[in-house]
Structure formats: structure tokens, C-alpha cells
Amino acid sequence: MHAQNADDPVLVHIEGRAGHLVLNRPKALNSLTHPMVLTLDAALASWESDPAVETVVISGAGGRGLCAGGDIRAIHDDARDGDGRATETFWWDEYRLNARIARFPKPYVALMDGIVMGGGVGVSAHGSVRVVTERSRVAMPETGIGFVPDVGGTHLLAQAPGELGTHLALTGSAVGAADALLCGLADHFVPSERLDALIADLATVPADEAVRHCATQPPGGELADAREWIDHCYAAASVEEILERLTGSGVQAAKEAAETILAKSPTSVKVTLEAVRRARELGSLERVLVQEYRVSCTALHESDLVEGVRAQIVDKDRNPRWSPATPGEVSAESVARFFAPRGDGRELSFAHSSDTAPSSDTVLSPDTALSPDTALSPGITPPHGQDHLGD
What we know:
Elements: E1 10-15, E2 18-23, H1 34-47, E3 55-60, E4 65-67, H2 72-81, H3 85-103, E5 108-112, E6 115-117, H4 119-122, E7 129-132, E8 137-139, H5 153-158, H6 164-171, H7 177-182, E9 188-189, H8 195-202, H9 207-214, H10 227-233, H11 239-247, H12 252-262, H13 266-282, H14 285-300, H15 303-314, H16 332-336, E10 349-350, E11 362-363
Helix pairs in contact: 1-3, 2-15, 3-14, 6-13, 8-9, 10-11, 11-12, 13-14
């Protein structure tokens, strides 16, 4: 690992028994770039077998959040002006990092303080010790930019109680600490004023003991009281019926949810509903990530992603022109093609763990059975025959 300076986008250091990963792009809310993903993955690969590192801690610099997501401007530019290969390779490495985090054999403590969205969820909510604060705002807001929840987000949301995950996936709504705990996106609430004490404890004592010293009960949330209408409305068979139930429920919050969904990309909303429901059946994170890679790479070449990022991030006119413009115009056939196998060796790949490195990739379709011990092989080559792009 190269010598570090204070401007590096990921700061990697060890304090006592804890290895620290600090996302360090505060002006960009620590949004992830491809080199950052590669740095995180290399550090975790090194620390897996390092007896000096007993706990890993990931946090964000700048005080505003852990991570607001991927570098969406770079993805927008690649989709608009390039062939998409840089982004596809970025996602290849990012999704494999998400799986490595989920399978990491040591405590992985994610300090989910402030904004945690999209790719920020991917590097935190798959960890074994997930800490939120009163400042946390956790979301998968992809439908608002013509995209679909990824980084294992559909896996997480599919496991939320009832239809809470469907509600969050379609609306892109951000939740606070109590609701993140309720939805299974976090494990512990620690007031932000205690984070320094928690970090100090992690250097000297086991992670569970350190968290126990600092954790307490969060302020009340909103979703528990909304379960009745959420579970009823989002259990409908289609987006159109969900919208009909929401608008006809007589509940103001439900009507507002319908208005929120109608402002999103109709294609993204329909694909997202299908993705979450398929994720429930797929089970393992790896199988869901394979599905998400298919969906993401298809979305990359759709007009709604470029238009959504233009409207929300580039021009900021907040007036996207979606195509098709309404859910009723999005056919079942157009949704199905997002889930079609990619072929030509361009599926996301994982390998079964063994005593020796595998001699070839094991490509896991969403129909492939996986054992809980499935692990990443560090030697798998990304698509397009390149180690990485985007440095």
C-alpha cells in the first residue's frame, strides 16, 4: 500500500486493535470512485489474515455523512459520451466489495452517521456491526435518477419487515435511526456525541463490548405506525395497483407516497418492484448481486439514467423527462429484459471458497445454489479483460 497523505480519497490506518477506513472526499459527501473501491477491497483482503487487526471500522470524513453514493456524474458522463465499460467495470468491483464486506470474518463496524445513500449503504449495511446516530439519513434513492437500487440494496430491502422495503425502494425515501433499525439496515444507535468514545474503545476492546458501552435507545421513528397502510398497499401485484391503493387509502401519507412514486422514472419504478420481489426468492446476497449487475448494466444504456442525473445533479432543474412517461406505458417485456442473462462472459462472477485459489470463475446466475460459505476469490478478472478502469 502506497504512502498516504491527508488528501487521499481513502485513509487507511490502524489504531490499536482496529483497522480504520475513512472515506475522504468530504466536498463530494465521500461519494465513491473506482479507485476508492479498489483501495477498500485491498485493505480488507490484507486485514482478513492480519492478526494485528481484530476489528475494521469504516467512517466518513467531513461530518456530513459516511457516503452519499457512487460518483454519479462520472457514471452519467460515461453513459452519455462513452461505451459504458468504465462504469460496468466499476460496478463489477464495487459489487464484489459489497459481498466481501458481508462475508468478512472479523467485526466490520460501519459508522453510518449523517448521509448514507446508494453506494454508501453498500459499504456499510452489509457489515456485521452497523451503527446509526440521530443525524443518520439512510436511503436507496435510485428511482429518482432513472436507476434501480443496487450494491445489494434490493437484498437488504427485500428482507425488511412486511412491505417496508418495497416502500423505501419505490419512493427512495430516507429514514432516520429508528426506522433504519426497524428495516434491518442498522443494528445499534449511538448518539453522535459518543462516536469519539466508541472509536477510542474499538482500539482497545472487542467490538461488541465497545458498542455496548456507547449504544442506547434511538428517538422514535415513523414507519412502525405506518405498517398497516404500507403492508396493504405495497402488497399489490403491480405498480399501477400499488398507486391505486395508495391514492385510495384515505391516508395522507399514503397519498404523498403515491405522488412521490409518480415523480420517479416509471421504468425504474417497475424494474425496482420486480427486482425486490425476485430478491426475496433468490436468498443469498451473491445471487442478488448477479441480478443487480444485469439490471444496472441494462439501465446504464437507457435514456432515463442520463436524463435523471441531468435533471437532479447536472442542470438541477428537477424536471426530468422520462421515457416512457407513465407506468402504464412500461410493458412487461421491457421490464423483463433488464433481468435477462448478459452472455459473452459478462456476468458478475464469484468463486466458491476452497483451500486453493480456483482455476476458473464460477458464474452464479440467480438460479445457482450457494452455500453460506461462498467467498470471493481475489483473482477473478473483471469484464473486458482489464484489471480496472477509472484510475
